[in-house]
Amino acid sequence: MYRIFVYGTLKRGMPNHSLIEDVQNGKAVYVANGTMAEKYPMVVEPNFGIPFLLDNPGEGKNVEGEVWDVDSNMLKKLDGIEMHPDWYTRFEKDIVVKDEAAESNKSAIIKCWTYILCDFSPKLTTYKYLSTYTNEDVVYIPPNERFLKNFDPWSMKK
Ligand code: PCA
Question: What is the model's pTM?
């Protein structure tokens, strides 16, 4: 199994979450909510509503998300969707996980794979740095509809 941290459209209730729940893609088990140990700039690109964690550690906020255990089939599927390693790149990062039992304030740091945008266009750093992705402020345009707005994925890169 592989431990992953999702902070964007793959979270529960978000537009790509059904991929994780689809048993045809492989196995996935929810572990806990988590927060990145290190600060990162997380932005939502305003024209397509795509969340990006920018490879600029130390800037931005401690991003919140979900930890899941997935098998190699599911990981392959997610790598395909995120276009790892050409678009997003998957890295292992430290995630802080709290004991969710009442009255406990124990926490642990675990290593999880997460998708980060490297060599990003400087334009992306002009957007607001968020700690939590929601699909409320900017509507997410899924990949199969992006051509309608002439989306060029490589315009997000340097
Ligand atoms: N999907 C991945 C990376 C960004 C996105 O929208 C995630 O939810 O973590």
Answer: 0.95
